[in-house]
Design brief:
Shape: globular
Helix content: under 10%
Strand order of the largest sheet: 1-4
CATH class: Alpha Beta
Low-confidence stretches: none
Mean pLDDT: 97
Bound molecules: iron/sulfur cluster
Number of strands: 4
CATH topology: Alpha-Beta Plaits
CATH architecture: 2-Layer Sandwich
Structural class: mainly beta
Order of helices and strands: EEEHE
Number of helices: 1
Length: 56
């Protein structure tokens, strides 16, 4: 299951460089590509607003 970015995202960009599979894309809020996310959790650990959660 891919991680997802919630509305808590403040678009700071902290998560993007830590993703080993370059699954995170920029936007008003950032998005994770569920097809390439390997569920490592690296992004969730660095997010300052706790906006990244495991998907269901
Ligand atoms: Fe990338 Fe890992 Fe976050 Fe998935 S869980 S988007 S692979 S950093």
């Amino acid at each position: 299951m891919a991680y997802v970015i919630t509305d808590n995202c403040v678009a700071c960009g902290t998560c993007m460089p830590v993703c080993p599979t370059e699954s995170i894309s920029e936007g008003d809020i950032y998005k994770i590509n569920p097809d390439t996310c390997i569920d490592c959790g690296s992004c969730a650990e660095v997010c300052p607003s706790e906006a990244i959660i495991p998907g269901e």
